[in-house]
Amino acid sequence: MVEKQTAGRDRLEDFAPKFAELNDDVLFGEVWSREKLLSARDRSLITVASLMSQGLFPQLKSHMLLAKKNGVTKKEIIEIITQLAFYAGWPKAWSAFSLAKEIWN
Q1: One Pfam annotation, family name (predicted)?
Q2: pLDDT one-digit tens code per residue, 23-60
Q3: Structural domain boundaries of the chain?
Q4: Which residues contact 95 (CB under 8 A, 6 or more apart)?
Q5: CA 93 – CA 61 distance, rounded (Å)
Q6: How far apart are CA 6 and CA 12, in angstroms?
Q7: Is the dihedral of CA 25, 103, 11, 19 positive or negative?
Q8: For the domain 7-104, what is the CATH superfamily, name and number?
Q9: 72 backbone φψ class: left, alpha, beta (φ>0; ψ -120 to 50)
């Protein structure tokens, strides 16, 4: 079962309350909780790949932490980054490996 997320409200409720609500209740509440269609682990794999490909490293770190919680192993994250290096770019892979090493070690 997906853990209830409060990052939107924790960080933005006073500044952008509607965005915080959509983040916590829709994205992480409704979409991520549809585990009969796609597991949280698989959603993490897809999200990590997308964020790395786009070079969105602050968000990638948060989602790598979530991926680890959702059961993605060190060997799997290494393989994902290696695969994406050829499609998303070598420098992005280097940056992603730095984050992964920090999280999985």
Answers
A1: CMD
A2: 999 998 899 999 999 999 999 999 999 999 999 999 99
A3: 7-104
A4: 55, 57
A5: 13
A6: 10
A7: negative
A8: AhpD-like (1.20.1290.10)
A9: beta
